[in-house]
Each structure stands twice: as structure tokens, then as C-alpha cells.
Amino acid sequence: MKSHYGKMGGTYRRVGDYFIPNLMLTKSTNYPIGKYGRIRQTFLKNHHNIIYTKLVMNGKLNEHLAETDKCCNERTVFLCNAMAEQEGVTEELKASDQMEWICRMNNIHNRAKEIVLNEIIYTI
């Protein structure tokens, strides 16, 4: 009698007294994964292991991480530009008081990063 895996065309290899299924991951394309993709990977691995394992087994983990990274970077740039415009952080401020401009832009960037982490990275 064949197992369900054998009926679907799966094969086994013999290791000692055991038959082990020949499981192979599909060939996946290498996607560039940045900072946000690595943070997402760590989050899934530590807090949502079932989703992480499902993505690995389907061969879609790298694609998911690359898409997440791209989305987070675009959202961060959008938020930084919107907050800078709303708070009046302009090129004139940069020309007149560089240290104040740097301080305010760092503050804006850190807030945008926290928003992106909570909206995209730490959600399922």
C-alpha cells in the first residue's frame, strides 16, 4: 500500500532501516534583502514560527522578505518627506542652521522608522 506522499509521486530514500521522503525545496531566485527584511525574518522566526516554516517550505520566504523590505523603505521615505514638510523642515533651515536641521531630520527619521516597524514588520 502506497502512502499519500507516494500516491502524489513522491519518492523515498533508504537510510539504515528507515525510508525518508526525498523533499527538495524549489529553486528560488535570490532577492536583495535589506535591514527591514532581516528584521521581519527574525520577527517571524521568533514569534510566528508556523508562518515562517510555511514560507520556507513553499520557497517564498526570500520573495516575501524582499517585498517587505521594499515596501518599508518606500513608506519610510514617504513619511519622512511628509513629516518634514508638515513641520517646516526645509532647505532654507538647512542653509541657515545645519545642526538644527540634522537634529530635526533625525527625529523625523526615527519616528518614521517606528511607524513602519509597527505598521508593516510587526503585523501578520
The number of helical segments is 6
Mean pLDDT figure: 91
Order of helices and strands: HEEHHHHH
Task: Assess the beta-strand content as a share of residues.
Answer: 5-15%
Structural class label: mainly alpha
Shape: rod-shaped
How would you describe what is shown here?
With 124 residues, the chain is mainly alpha-helical. 68% of the residues lie in helices and 6% in strands. A two-stranded antiparallel sheet has the order 1-2. Strand 1 and strand 2 form a beta hairpin. Helix 2 crosses helix 3 and helix 4 packs across helix 6. The chain is rod-shaped. It starts with a helix and ends with a helix. The mean pLDDT is 91.
Give the topology, please:
Layout: H1 4-7, E1 12-15, E2 18-21, H2 35-47, H3 49-58, H4 61-87, H5 91-96, H6 98-121
Antiparallel strand pairs: 1-2
Helix pairs in contact: 2-3, 2-4, 4-6
